[in-house]
Amino acid sequence: MKHKCSKCSRDAVYHARYEGKYYCRKHFNEMVERKVKNHVKKYKLIEKGDRIAVGVSGGKDSVVLLHLLAKLRERFPFELVAVTIDEGIASYRPLSVEIAKRNAKKLGIEHRLYSFKEYIGFTLDETVEIMGSFERGERVGACSYCGVWRRWLLNYAAQDVGADKLAVGHNLDDEVQMFIMNILRGDIARLGRTGPYYEVIHEDLVPRIKPLREVPEKEIVLYAVLNNIEVDFSECPYAVEAFRAEIRDWLNEMEEKHPGTKYQILRSYDKLFPLIAKTYVKHELNRCKICGQPTTGEICKACQFRLQVEKKAKERGLSFRLE
Ligand code: SF4
Ligand code: ZN
To answer: Model's pTM, two decimal places?
Structure first.
């Protein structure tokens, strides 16, 4: 039997088991949009007149985020600019960069591209080639370079476009996975970095906001499909984070057996966040001696990685720098 929307008489397209409701297309869209609006309002993530840089990779989360913020902007004036980081992954990135560009264009939003090659000196593919084998312990995983450099470059890009805040596409599933992973690793300090709201830690660290934090991954996928939003569903060839995948599967199993589990975990995180942030977040940051970006040590992790790769390239007589 076909289910009807819990709000009207139309056929349902979605069953939100965590609240026992069915939604038709129209009411589903409204529900997702409302979640984002309420989260942004509750924590004052965006204020009138803000200039928001949106990190858009071309994947479902960041593209849907761009569309939802564009929608939110219709009734509540703020500026948007899309920034895409091109890590230089030949088999994967060119398409998603195009998709990011096309979505920004469609929405009439300025789009800016920042590449590892131009700002770090090496593409991610080159880095992996220079550093050697992960299995033989010659380098850390590709995601470590990628994550550190992307964070660095996104902050640089957000400053470069004059943004007040940087919006990223983390959804409910990402957030809950991250929470559990850090608990299992005993890395509580990391949980204090970005939670439901942001704190201004340093004048040169553009605050990160996560407007999709309350939206389950499933709903993001469905929102993209129902609204004909072009997104890239392909996976990065370096994505082999086995630990995260295990946590994801376990959480999905728990959610299946006990609908609402993910939201309950998120609520626990929200309650703990102020305490963790107060106890662990360092407000006195130095400036990196090389690039000047805020860091806890002397030289930031991004510059440390860059120096390692430069050194190894030199030793091996390889030249990858731009002329
Ligand atoms: Fe970068 Fe790893 Fe993500 Fe690929 S999976 S884009 S290497 S962080
Ligand atoms: Zn640096």
So the answer is: 0.94
